[in-house]
Amino acid sequence: MYARFCERFGLEIPILQAPTGSIAGPELAAAVSGAGAMGGMGVTWTPPETIAEQIRQTRSVTHKPFLVNFALAFEPLGLQSALEAGAPVITLSWGDPAPYLPRIRAAGATVGVQTGNPAGARRAVQLGADFIVCQGIEAGGHVQSTTRLDALLREVRAQLGEEAFLVAAGGIADAADIARALNAGADAVMMGTRFVATVESRAHPEYKRRLLDADSEAQTSLTVCFEGGWSHAPHRVLRNATLEAWEAAGCPPIGRRPSEGEIVAFAASGDPIYRYEDVAPRIGHTGAVGEMALYAGTGVGRIADLPEAAALVRRLWAQTQALLRPENRPQSSSPSLHHG
Ligand SMILES: Cc1cc2nc3c(=O)[nH]c(=O)nc-3n(C[C@H](O)[C@H](O)[C@H](O)COP(=O)(O)O)c2cc1C
């Protein structure tokens, strides 16, 4: 039940903004949290001193909870820095959370673990995770799951029981998607691609434009094309020239991919970005940014505008409430009626 989730984690609206790598910075996190949902930042590749600064910046704008994510395919070098700066919620994905959970809990932060299968969910709960993000195969970005979200939610709920806090992620882009997940027993939803297409996201304007232009799930593919930097990790992206040339060449392995080693764009620092790198285009990147990894979930066809994040949260929640089953609908005293 979403009301129970909101009460436990200090939210008014049971929506979590996914940590979409460096595209989700303090501006986005603070706007989403300020609206009563839970904003987030992905800091896996951010230097520790910048992580601390970003957390301080977010906390100076909102006193509400927000999440800070580490993808454990990489050593979480900035974890201590995040905890010392007072990150209220840490989420972990892509790896074994066991070595890090005690430290996070000792620092007093809430912990969420994203997983793509029931065994991962069970283990995370045994280790003391406060909530589990069930990521379905529909998700944008790197995809841990091989299962569709509805089936995954059902299996995890059956194994963990009613007490576990389950957040549904993957392909959720509009109010009907949110209501479907909550009516199916999720306690909250996490949305990534939808928030990439907002004013505050740091995504390059060309990337945002392509998200708006895509009109169906068929314009995404789950692939291993953009393997540079993150090995053996399937990811869902918008189809673009790099992906199509690689597929036309028969999906060759690293070392034999078409135009491998070619510079496709430049970072704001002037550093080159090579074709097949796992980096998504951000503000300040220049060059053929549309040929970089354009991560997107299957809900992309239902994203048609570029709103401010707080307005988006309020609109989604107002529309969702009308679609909830009676037992899920807010009572008159529910905190969900207040849009902070
Ligand atoms: C651009 C982008 C970057 C992402 N980066 C991360 C990340 O750094 N860490 C992580 O745990 N998940 C990351 N994800 C996956 C999200 O956590 C989440 O599972 C996904 O966005 C949900 O699917 P949706 O995009 O269809 O809403 C990313 C997703 C996108 C679209």
What descriptive keywords fit this protein?
14 strands, 2 domains, three-stranded antiparallel β-sheet, 340 residues, binds flavin mononucleotide, globular, eight-stranded parallel β-sheet, alpha/beta, 16% strand, TIM Barrel
Question: What do you see in this structure?
Answer:
The structure is a single chain. This protein has 340 residues and is of the alpha/beta class. 32% of the residues lie in helices and 16% in strands. The strands form 3 sheets. An 8-stranded parallel sheet has the order 1-9-8-6-5-4-3-2. Strands 7-11-10 form a 3-stranded antiparallel sheet, with no helix packed on it. The chain has a 3-stranded antiparallel sheet with strand order 13-12-14, with no helix packed on it. The relative contact order is 0.15. Mean pLDDT is 95; it is low at 333-340. Flavin mononucleotide binds at residues 18-21, 23, 42, 44, 69, 71, 93, 114, 135, 138-141, 169-172, 190-193, 196, 280, 295, 297, 299.
User: Reading side by side through the largest sheet, how are the strands ordered?
Assistant: 1-9-8-6-5-4-3-2
Low-confidence stretches: 333-340
Largest sheet: 8 strands, parallel
CATH architecture descriptor name of the largest domain: Alpha-Beta Barrel
The fraction of residues assigned to DSSP E strands is 15-25%
Give the CATH H-level superfamily of the largest domain.
Aldolase class I
Q: Distance between termini? A: 21 Å
Secondary structure: number of strands: 14
Q: Roughly how much helix do the residues carry, as a percent range?
A: 25-40%
Helical/strand content category: alpha/beta
Spell out the helices and strands N to C: HEHEHEHEHEHEEHEHEHHEEHEEEH
Report the CATH C-level class of the largest domain: Alpha Beta
What value does the average pLDDT take? 95
Shape: globular
Rg estimate, integer Å? 19 Å
**Count of alpha and pi helical runs:** 12
Number of domains: 2
Named once each, the bound ligands are: flavin mononucleotide
Kindly report the CATH topology of the largest domain. Answer: TIM Barrel
